[in-house]
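DATA CLASS: polypeptide
GOAL: derive structure tokens

***
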Amino acid sequence: MTELSYESTLRELRTDRGVLRYHEAGAGPPLLMLHGSGPGVTGWRNFRGNLPVFAERFRCLVLEFPGFGVSDPVDEHPMVAAPAAVRRFLDGLGVERADVIGNSMGGIVGARFAISDPDRVRRLVTIGGIGRSLFSPSPGEGINLLIEFTEDPTRERLVAWLNSMVHDRSLVTEELIEERWAHATEPSTLASARKMYSRKAIEAAAASAEPPYWAMLHRIRARTLITWGRDDRVSPVDMALLPMRTIPGAELHVFPDCGHWAMIEQKEAWESAVLAFLTREERS
């Protein structure tokens, strides 16, 4: 297989709400990969290490959500804009149905899409973040560190947040810090982050009259695999109990010695579990 570099996989899709950028690799059934949130995040940075494995079996489509500095921005709150971007993206590519993998925010977006467009999601895989805290304080430690960085971005606060994302802090390299810092402090990207993670934004979301997405998880029809790091300090593992119990037929896989980025920190084990789930034959 040709080396899957950033440049060789990058694509653009023009839509009526601006350009959606994405990475594409492999051939086979479509697999939509949705990134999480946080300083300097992109779909490429979330899933670049997993693409070679999944591209052997799937047409991998790594969408960059509006509001994170890669796809063209829109005026809406990034979480509100994301499901509509997924729909425009699949429509624009002519993809009627796909498997979906979502990390954290991407898992929430994938769940919402599976609820609103049930015929378009065959199987759903989430990585942390989905559900709600039942026993742990909310917001979690990592979210509080994210809020602190968003309101007053310093390099030290970025490093503190990155350390909360992983069990093994050796993964927080100078290269990772530098690429995240440069992207996260770009003015428009930072302004978008503040729509999600300022204390004012968090309080407004908590006071919203809209029913929370987790109260509708029972409406998901897609076969669902919930994956989680046992040592997640951003979204503690007790959050998994609600989706595990309410999504019909959901499966839960918890990885030890693992923080919020299961697809990075327990790469081989996570890929093995997810591939087994996605390639398992349909039950009669």
Q: What stands out?
A: Residues 78-93 form the longest helix (16 residues). The first strand starts at residue 10 and ends at 15. DSSP finds 13 helices and eight strands in the chain. Residues 57 and 139 are 38 Å apart (CA to CA).
